[in-house]
Amino acid sequence: MNTTVSHLGTALDLAAAGVPVLPLRAGKVPFGNCPACAKNICGGRPNMKTPGPCTCPHPCHGWAAATTDPNVVNAPTWARAWREAAGVAYHPGGAGLTVVDLDSAEAIAWARASLPATRTVPTTRGEHWLYRGAMQSANAVRPGMDIKSSMQYARWLGPGTGAITSLPDVVRALTVKEPSTVRLAAVTVPAPTGGGECPHRTPTYLDRGIAMAEQRITAAREAVHATVYRTFLTVLSTHGRCGCLTDAHTARLFTAAQAMGESPRHCTDAWTNALTRLGL
What we know:
Layout: H1 3-16, E1 21-25, E2 29-30, H2 70-73, H3 76-84, E3 87-90, E4 97-102, H4 105-114, E5 119-122, E6 127-132, E7 138-142, E8 145-148, E9 154-155, E10 165-166, H5 169-173, H6 203-218, H7 224-239, H8 247-259, H9 264-277
Parallel strand pairs: 6-10
Antiparallel strand pairs: 1-2, 1-3, 3-9, 4-6, 4-8, 5-6, 7-8
């Protein structure tokens, strides 16, 4: 069978089932951006990590090009990609799925002993275990094991066998980094004339502000370091000059940042840069 027809037919079937698809070229990689989008000069989907405003009709921007629209999949602008395609990929997270990619016998043995049985798909080197539910993607969560879900693509290798089950907590936990224990240096800020009490905010307002800052950090899905810095800057601009911030408040912010993958040094640098920016 003509491989172009085969890949396109597979892609259309998957799209009809609500699975976002895209063509893969040789080497199991997506097609590169077209000249108009080269190096993301179009302004969309920087570094292929987040969907952006780009409306390019070509299968650009890696996983973010995945679509369930049959008119796009079968469009003339995708025709060349299908002629050159070596396979079909899909965006698991966009389909509400998570793929546990097991690339060794040891990884498969661990999964069989530690994870609930679910649909499995044979791969060149191992198996894909599919679960219902999307999560953060991550590579090398264990030896020979990757997690492919949100903002990632996986090769379509067939429907697999077995009943698909819900994403277990043990898989979600594989991508959670243990926050490092940080020895926080005391942050000294000038106290206003008349004492160290905050003259314009109440303690309740401060606690609410710290809680909102924690939420802002943990909700970041991209540019985590920039989000941490801006959040630190906001907190310090409000309370950095009145002496009401304590080490406990700072520790809460640092812990939230480290839970998102920031190192202790990055946290300290962001805090110091915010202090410097504000002249503290």
